Amino acid sequence: MDIIFYHPSFKAASWINGLQQRLPQATVRQWQPGDNAAADYALVRTPPVEMLQGRSDLKGVFALGAGVDDILTQLKQHPEMLSESVPLFRLEDTGMGLQMQEYAVYTVLGWFRRFDDYQQQKQQTLWQSLKNYRRQDFTIGILGAGVLGSNVAQSLKVWGFPIRCWSRSPKQIDGVTSYYGADQLSDFLSGTQVLINLLPNTPQTVGIINRQLLSQLNSGAFVLNLARGAHLVEEDLLAALEAGEIKAAALDVFVQEPLPETSPLWSHPRVAITPHNAAVTLPEEAMDYIAKSIQQREAGEMPEGRVDIVRGY
Hints:
The protein is 30% helix and 16% strand. The chain is of the alpha/beta class. The strands form 2 sheets. It has a 7-stranded parallel beta sheet with strand order 8-7-6-9-10-11-12. A 5-stranded parallel beta sheet has the order 2-1-3-4-5, with helices on one face. Helix 1 (12-22) crosses helix 10. The radius of gyration is 21 Å and the shape is elongated. The mean pLDDT is 96. Its main location: cytoplasm.
């Protein structure tokens, strides 16, 4: 069994050693330009077209991240890069779910307890207690009900908040009110106090968080974007913040990354920023998942996490 590996920033040696320990029967090598030798599996992040092109015998390609938009973008430009017969897999969780839970719980509780307001008061040397929000009115709406969305919903549910989610197709999460499809999006937004975005990045979801959508949230709502910068129209968010329609936002992802120094988001007092690190690939967990998935493929099974290239996730 031959496995090829490519990542623009990960150190290949640790991945090669880790995978060979988990799959002693495999030969793992770092792909280099000009390497056309046989391979059964490929582990990639933003791979060069020539790495995968013509490899119709691959049993699987594993994207080294929760999202696969980098590969799907390449496929639009170079549809010949990956044979239709080769399954593409994303990392279903591998520790990312817990990281997303930590980020969401920390941020939502901070807003609920008004720590952002107290921080503003600190800047004014103002000692003043503020009226607490009512938990039953602090409805949290999650865009996206996949693995990460479901994990975040469960982590927030234990704090007693009303939780709802929206997805393109019907999904059921225990104790969470579910909405789906374009016809139910307005109902989902109405009454939502905190909007958390964990949607996949597809042509249908680009720019979905715009002024029209934001205007349907509760007045003074909060926005947390943990998915992709392409989902959010940044100018519309800023306009909604200035109009008081949105009270605050926490953003981990941006249309352009790194976020340009000239972006007004940097200086806005109600916008928290992190550098696209809400959830990062954890090598040990990722290698465990990939090794298990390869063993399933070798046994004739189809692992979880297969990407529907047409739908984009």
